[in-house]
Design a protein that fits this description.
The complex is a heterodimer of chains A (about 325) and B (about 400). Chain A has helices at about 40-50, 70-75, 95-100, 110-120, 135-150, 165-180, 195-200, 220-225, 240-245, 270-280, 295-305, and strands at about 1-15, 15-25, 30-35, 55-60, 65, 80, 155-160, 185-190, 205-210, 210-215, 225-235, 250-260, 260-265, 285-295. By secondary structure, chain A is of the alpha/beta class. Chain A has 2 domains: about 1-220, Rossmann fold (3-Layer(aba) Sandwich), CATH 3.40.50; about 225-295, Alpha-Beta Plaits (2-Layer Sandwich), CATH 3.30.70.100. In chain A, helix 3 packs across helix 4 (about 110-120) and helix 4 (about 110-120) packs antiparallel against helix 5. Chain B folds into 2 domains: about 5-40 and about 190-400, no CATH class; about 50-175, abc type-2 transporter like fold (3-Layer(aba) Sandwich). Helices cover about 65% and strands about 5% of the residues of chain B. In chain B, helix 1 crosses helix 9, helix 3 runs parallel beside helix 7 and helix 13 packs parallel to helix 17. The two termini of chain B are about 20 Å apart. Chain B is mostly helical and about 400 residues long. Chain B is built from 17 helices and 4 strands. In chain B, strand 1 (about 50-55), helix 3 and strand 2 form a beta-alpha-beta unit. The chains are: A alpha/beta (about 325), B mainly alpha (about 400).
Chain lengths: ~325, ~400
């Protein structure tokens, strides 16, 4: 069943077109990764989907029903984990979770169970009475997640939930997200950490300038770009002539020398490594360690969205 | 835990501001106005405060004896003062007397002789306390006695010293009679210490609302908490009403404490005062609290932090209190300042209080000016409230954050 359906959404801020006929469809049970550089329109798209921002054109349906600011039945099934930690400084961990849960669940005893479960889920047991300012960055992130999922939503929007946390906390959070998904929640996940998206998302969309540029599974996205693999070969003596020779090979996209390693980006093909090694042998260049890596999501992202810096005028 | 309960919880997690701005400053208002005297209504009796004169008489003369006697009739005279340099300095320095008079040897004879001849009489040596006006009053009394004696001796050079002294004392008996009629409509049945207290509490009201509302709504107004609240199945109207109800709790605390404290602490002075006057003062206070509420809401919509809220609330509170005449009688201000004061809500609040204090009765015509003044205060509150909504909208549109929408 399609849980989220967005069709030809247009949103303008004056002259700026934030969303330009943006379309998206998310099936139930997915962890859907939404990728895009800063200012690409991710947050605007999510705010429109949540009914927080009016839009100029297009349609949005959640669970098969049109989403409006007063669609309270639909809102009751949604959870949101914003990028910034959104809690009350004056309330304890338990009070914060209880407050946000109370916006969805009015029954006190049921809420108490849900709050307990949320505290266990994110691993905040023992910190219930702590105020946010007493918590570390990682614990704050966990509290932020607990506030968004305590009411057991079936559709969860997570906006960069792992920003500025240590690797252990990141692992804990990612495992939690996968667990939520296994329990039946559909998750829309935005992040700048490509390896995270690669690891947990079943489908990924890359957007820029308010438009969807590509979407599919991790493998499908990688297949969309021309790059086949990246070779890293430790070489003893490489000169400009050798680099030029490598670049002239038909399957090579680019070749550079980086800290004693010859780095070669190759097109999709069966004999890339063999071709390069044969060339090195012919030129009498001795080589040591050899690494061959498939393209990463980061390569896909950079190829699709470009390498120019964002957040600049 | 509902929005209302959460907002109240946030409110009471900042007890220090309630204690300082409401409890403590309210009590300060009671203390600083405690010594404002409450005159009996219609009283026409006046009496001068007695002064103390210390006299060192080094002259054994009938004239100087007569002078001392004349002063004793009008002041507390200490004439057993030791003629010692150190002790004479201490008399004024330690406040034992308002004026020290030293009559030098031969002064009486020289004075009489000069007065009879029409020459300038010799001057007497005096030292006065400068910290109060009593020293000058005492010195004036001494000079008056000498002037009267000199005049009598000049008018009747053949009179004996005793006769001249008696005539001088008779001259000093003559007083200026002042006639006045108290205008009934200006008499204030409300005790001045209560009225001054009602003016004083303008400052705590502005500070309390300015700071506490900012603290209470700070997190609710922060971008992502707002986003979370709006994503929930809860109408913006209900959310706003819940927050308004929490503000009403603060409103009730501030109003009840400050009004109740004034009535209870000034109960003694308020005995016999018409109940409607006290009730109407309460209405004026209630109206001014609405202005305070709007002011606090405006600060909260500006997105300022705790430190800035404290700074702004105190500075604006001080400015409005001074300008509006809450602490200093507005009649003492320069005309330009008075004109500026009319553009502050405190001025109109004070106007309403004065009307309630001096109105002859509780008729519509007598109270109409106060109603108009309170209407102006309400208009100030409304304008500030609308400005707050506008500021909130502008900030939201700039940050591209979702606004709380109706429905």
């Amino acid at each position: 069943m399609t849980i989220v359906s967005v069709d030809s959404l247009v949103k303008r801020y004056g002259e700026l077109v934030a969303l330009d006929h943006f379309s998206m469809a998310i099936e139930g049970g997915e962890i859907f990764g939404l990728l895009g550089p800063n200012g690409s329109g991710k947050t605007t798209a999510i705010n429109c989907i949540l009914g927080l921002l009016p839009y100029d054109k297009g349609t949005i349906t959640l669970f098969g029903e049109p989403m409006t600011p007063t669609s309270y039945d639909l809102k009751a099934r949604i959870g949101i984990v914003p990028q910034n930690v959104a809690v009350f400084e004056e309330l304890s961990v338990r009070e914060n979770i209880d407050y946000f849960c109370s916006l969805y669940v009015t029954d006190k005893s049921r809420r108490r169970e849900l709050v307990d479960e949320a505290i266990d889920f994110v691993g905040l047991s023992g910190y219930e009475k702590f105020r946010p300012k007493k918590l570390s960055g990682g614990l704050l992130r966990r509290l932020n997640i607990a506030c968004g999922i305590a009411h057991k939503p079936t559709l969860i929007f997570m906006d960069e939930p792992t920003v500025a946390v240590d690797p252990q906390t990141r692992n804990h959070i990612l495992e939690g997200i996968v667990r939520l998904n296994h329990e039946g929640a559909t998750i829309i996940y935005t992040s700048h950490y490509m390896e995270e998206v690669e690891e947990i998302c079943s489908r990924i969309m890359i957007m820029d300038h308010g438009r969807s540029l590509a979407q599919g599974t991790n493998t499908e996205l990688k297949a969309m770009i021309g790059m086949g693999e990246r070779l890293r070969i430790e070489v003893a003596n490489a000169d400009d002539e050798l680099i030029a020779n490598v670049r002239s090979l038909p399957s090579v996209i680019s070749a550079t020398i980086d800290q004693g390693f010859l780095c070669v980006d190759c097109k999709t093909g069966a004999h890339n490594l063999v071709d390069v090694l044969e060339l090195l042998q012919c030129r009498g260049v001795s080589f040591g360690r050899i690494y061959a890596e498939p393209p990463t999501l980061n390569d896909v992202f950079l190829e699709i969205t470009g390498t120019e810096l964002r957040d600049e005028r | 835990m509902s929005v209302f309960k959460t907002a109240c919880r946030v409110l009471f997690r900042h007890p220090v501001y309630l204690i300082i701005y409401v409890l403590y400053l309210g009590l300060m208002g009671i203390f600083v106005t405690a010594n404002i005297e409450t005159d009996e209504v219609g009283s026409t009796a006046f009496s001068a405060e007695p002064v103390t004169i210390a006299i060192v008489n080094r002259d054994d003369n009938a004239f100087t004896d007569g002078l001392v006697n004349a002063l004793q009739e009008r002041a507390d005279v200490a004439n057993d003062v030791a003629d010692d340099r150190q002790q004479l300095q201490d008399i004024i320095a330690k406040g034992a007397a308002d004026c020290l008079v030293i009559i030098p040897n031969g002064f009486g004879a020289s004075f009489v002789e000069a007065a009879r001849a029409g020459d300038a009489p010799p001057e007497i040596e005096t030292a006065v306390a400068t910290d109060t006006v009593d020293g000058l009053r005492a010195e004036s009394l001494v000079n008056t006695a000498l002037t009267c004696a000199a005049l009598e001796l000049r008018l009747d050079p053949d009179a004996s010293v005793e006769e001249a002294a008696a005539a001088a004392r008779a001259s000093m008996e003559r007083t200026v009679k002042a006639h006045y009629t108290a205008r009934a409509e200006e008499a204030s049945p409300l005790p001045p210490n209560y009225l001054t207290y009602c003016g004083w509490i303008v400052y705590p009201i502005i500070c309390a609302f300015g700071v506490v509302i900012v603290m209470m709504l700070r997190d609710f107004n922060s971008g992502d908490v707002r986003r979370r609240n709006l994503t929930a199945p809860l109408s913006s109207l209900r959310l706003s009403l819940s927050l308004a109800a929490a503000c009403a709790v603060l409103f009730g605390i501030v109003f009840l404490w400050l009004f109740g404290l004034g009535v209870v602490a000034r109960a003694g002075s308020l005995v016999g005062v018409d109940a409607w006057r006290i009730a109407l003062c309460g209405v004026a206070l209630l109206t001014f609290c609405l202005f305070g509420l709007a002011f606090g809401f405006l600060l909260s919509q500006c997105g300022i932090g705790e430190l800035m809220a404290n700074a702004l609330a105190n500075i604006i509170g001080l400015m409005l209190s001074f300008l509006g005449g809450a602490w200093i009688d507005i009649t003492l201000m320069a005309p330009g300042l008075k004109t500026i004061a009319m553009f502050t809500p405190v001025y109109w609040y004070e106007e309403a209080l004065q009307t309630f204090a001096t109105a002859p009765d509780a008729t519509a015509s007598a109270l109409a000016p106060a109603c108009g003044a309170l209407g102006v205060v309400l208009l100030f509150a409304l304008v500030i409230f609308v400005a707050a909504l506008l500021v909130g909208r502008i900030r939201l549109s700039q940050s591209k954050l979702p606004a709380y929408q109706a429905g």
